[in-house]
Please model this.
Amino acid sequence: MKISSPLSLGLLALILAVECSAQDFDFFYFVLQWPGSYCDTKKSCCYPTTGKPAADFGIHGLWPNYNDGSYPSNCDPGSPYDRSKIRDLLGRMQANWPTLACPSGDGSTFWEHEWEKHGTCAESVLDQHAYFQAALSFKNQVNLLQTLHNAGINPDGGFYSISSIKDAIKEGTGFTPFIECNVDESRNSQLYQVYFCVDTSGTQLMECPVFPNGRCSSSIEFPAF
Model:
C-alpha cells in the first residue's frame, strides 16, 4: 500500500480548500433603502450616533443569491468582520450605508451583520475591503435619487405609480429594478427598497434572473425624510 507523503497530503488539503472556497452563487442582489420609508412605520427608527443621514437612498446590502431564489448565508465563521480592514472607507460607509436600527449605533453592528451573513459567501471573489468598496461603487453608479428626480419623482410625500418608478429607473440605469414596499402607520404602501442585480465578479450590473417575492400597490408613496 502506498503511503502519501506529508507534502502530497498538504497539497491535497490546499486543493480541497480552494475548491471549497470557490464561488458558489449565481448573482448578487444590490439593495438600496429609502430612509424615509424605514422610519415612517409603527416601529420607527433611530438615527446613527453620527447624526441624521442625508435624504438619500442608503445601502442595505450586497447579497449573493442563487437562480432558484434561495441564497447562501454565514459561509465562513473564520472570517469575522474587521473594521481595521475598511478604515479608509469608514467616512463613505457612514454617509452611504448608515444604520437606522435602534438603539443608535455608528454602523459597525450593521456592517458586521452584512459581511458575516452575506459577504463571507462571496469572499472567493471579493475580500472584505473589496466587498464594501463594490457596494459603495454601485450606489454611486446608479445614483438612484437623481435618476428618479430626472423623471419628476421626488420624496415629497406624493404618490406615484409603481410602473412610472420602474420605468424611470430602467431608463436611468439601463436595468430593470425590483421594488419592495412597506406600509406606514396609515397603511399606505411606500417605496422602501430597490433591488438591482450584479454579476458574480461583483463588478457589473446585470438583468435579474429572478426577483424576490413581494408586491406593491399600483400607486405608492415616496415619503419625505
